[in-house]
């Protein structure tokens, strides 16, 4: 691989300037077709204990607004995820609100008086206090180490070859991006990692849920959360804890009116969107418990889907790229059939 | 430069794992501070003839909704831009509507009956018919050639060095990304280009405005437009014409309710947002003519701003990245003071 050097890139670049009709098969499967054709075994149930159900006050015309968040599995962001589960169990979020919506950035929710020492809602006892080194994890978890090991990068020349490899090739799985020496999918999540695969961290893609905090060394508790509603602000990776992603009802957060205060904060209390309740799905009565699955990111259906996202050959496209930003390959999620 | 090889990347990666306090100056200027401090001469007036003013029906509580779009300057997308100006002059858009809002993708507007041969609104005579090769331009325009020339890439080894260079360095200006062998700013716009700088094309960043079309070889007229309201769908670059960007009132398009039909199409006519008028600013009476400026992308203020976006060293951040996705460096726009 080291000697393959940059030839694959030159070939890929050359291919892109060839008129489309000469190089592509018409009407290849679109990413959505590949998802629809994935067998039942390609789908993984999301544990009810990892699903957070947030009920907002009804919208226009009394329309219910329910948002479902998938919390990150081990070993990522453990302390914050534990705090959020404790806050949900204590019904702490009930009566808080969406307080900030900044266009092309984030929608944020929590205690509107959180910054006011007198009026702030008291946090339950026993929340973990996290340190900044926990924004990333050491890859000593066996499954994570296996994901990283399968994609090991031996040295800088390997990385250069990976950067140059066409999408779908073995080498391409090693490549990173501007924000991380390596990017990969593991257990249904997009991750960044260092070149040696010793540390890994979750990414701020669209819909990612992170933990609001004050200035360093504060790391936040999990009582103030936000989700990404614009272009992935990847510069936040490892600067703030990512704890999950919105998997249903995203439109109830992304289509809210933008706040007119600094950083998109709602200036008047009446603009805030009340949060009626936040519960773990496992604490809801069975009929109200949502059930979701993600497409196994280690399987063939996902590989084909990712390749199709990287090189759109369905009828609409005339120039397949041969690569994709990892945040442009959202992990498919569905309701359990 | 060719021999510098990958050392800069290794240094950059090493620096990123050093605890933050040891490497950064606290409270360096944030990107916003740099914009605020830019001298008057760093700002460039946008010609009134390049500004499209779209007035939507008032929103909740009778709130006015005005969207301002900056059309691309020469030499990009000339035929489509000319068509859009002709359509505006003919008041053709008046009475059309926002017909589609797909979360994390696009808001689209035009004739709701555009696909219906009987009911479709008649287009004015004389619109240009564009070909697919015009999604990119040949860099024979002197200013564009100068921008590209200043950032010439001699061969693959240079590109590898560029990919590895730390942000802000001379080499870093040469680097491309997954979607384009080179990316650069020119005359206030983010562009992609081929390795030799012979062809360049506009990018689908957040807020970019593109031309809806049917299947290839159709290229659209400009009568159906969309804007990006989520993560940059860069796979659309050179597959669809980009003609401009929303520079004011983006929230009136990005915060609309998402459509529930396939691809986010509004299923009921009542959901559509009526477009009252679309005019070129140059055709409006002086008091209603908006005036905007962009920060000169060839100047020092923009360089400092871009570097600060790439390596956030203001108080909130603990790990500057040393690079940024070009769509994460939005060109600063302001009202003319």
Annotate the secondary structure layout.
Two copies of one chain form a homodimer.
Chain A: H1 7-17, H2 20-23, H3 31-37, E1 43-45, E2 51-56, E3 65-71, H4 78-89, E4 97-101, E5 106-110, E6 137-138, H5 142-150, H6 156-164, E7 182-186, E8 189-193, E9 199-202, E10 208-211, E11 225-228, E12 242-248, H7 251-254, E13 273-280, E14 292-295, H8 300-310, E15 333-335
Antiparallel strand pairs in A: 1-14, 2-3, 2-13, 3-12, 4-5, 4-13, 5-11, 6-9, 7-8, 8-9, 10-11, 10-12, 14-15
The interface involving the most residues is between: A-B, 58 and 58 residues
Structural class of chain A: alpha+beta
Q: If helices are DSSP runs of H or I spanning 4 or more residues, what is the number of helices of chain A?
A: 8
Largest sheet of chain A: 8 strands, antiparallel, barrel
Helix content of chain A: 10-25%
> What does the radius of gyration of chain A come to?
21 Å
- Quaternary structure annotation: homodimer
Strand content of chain A: 15-25%
The number of distinct β-strands of chain A equals 15
Terminal-residue CA separation of chain A: 43 Å
Overall shape of chain A: it is: globular
Physical arrangement of strands within the biggest beta sheet of chain A: 2-3-12-10-11-5-4-13
Q: What letter string, H or E per element, gives the SSE order of chain A?
A: HHHEEEHEEEHHEEEEEEHEEHE
Provide the low-confidence segments of chain A as ranges: 1-26
Rounded mean pLDDT of chain A is 87
């Amino acid at each position: 691989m080291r000697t393959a050097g940059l030839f694959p890139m030159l070939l890929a670049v050359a291919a892109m300037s060839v008129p489309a009709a000469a190089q592509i098969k018409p009407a290849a499967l679109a990413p959505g077709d590949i998802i629809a054709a994935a067998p039942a075994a390609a789908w993984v149930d999301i544990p009810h204990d990892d699903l957070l159900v947030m009920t907002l006050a009804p919208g226009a015309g009394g329309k219910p607004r329910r948002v479902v968040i998938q919390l990150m599995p081990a070993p990522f962001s453990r302390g914050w995820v534990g705090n959020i589960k404790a806050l949900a169990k204590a019904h702490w979020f009930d009566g808080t609100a969406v307080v900030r919506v900044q266009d092309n950035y984030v929608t944020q929710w929590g205690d509107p008086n959180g910054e006011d020492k007198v009026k702030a809602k008291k946090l339950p006892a026993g929340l973990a206090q996290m340190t900044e080194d926990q924004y990333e994890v050491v890859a000593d978890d066996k499954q994570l180490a296996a994901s990283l090991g399968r994609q090991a990068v031996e040295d800088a020349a390997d990385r250069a070859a990976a950067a140059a490899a066409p999408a779908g090739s073995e080498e391409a799985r090693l490549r990173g991006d501007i924000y991380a020496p390596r990017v990969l999918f593991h257990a249904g999540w997009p991750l960044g990692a260092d070149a040696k695969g010793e540390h890994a961290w979750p990414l701020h893609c669209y819909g990612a849920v992170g933990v609001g905090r004050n200035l360093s060394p504060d790391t936040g508790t999990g009582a103030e959360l936000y989700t990404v509603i614009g272009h992935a602000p990847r510069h936040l990776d490892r600067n703030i804890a990512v704890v999950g992603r919105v998997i249903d009802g995203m439109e109830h957060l992304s289509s809210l009116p933008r706040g007119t205060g600094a950083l998109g904060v709602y200036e008047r209390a009446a603009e805030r969107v009340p949060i009626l309740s936040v519960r773990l799905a496992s604490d809801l009565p069975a009929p109200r418990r949502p059930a979701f699955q993600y497409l196994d990111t280690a399987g063939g259906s996902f590989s084909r889907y990712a390749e199709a996202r990287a090189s759109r050959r369905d009828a609409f496209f005339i120039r397949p790229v041969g690569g994709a930003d990892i945040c442009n390959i959202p992990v498919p999620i569905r309701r359990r059939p």
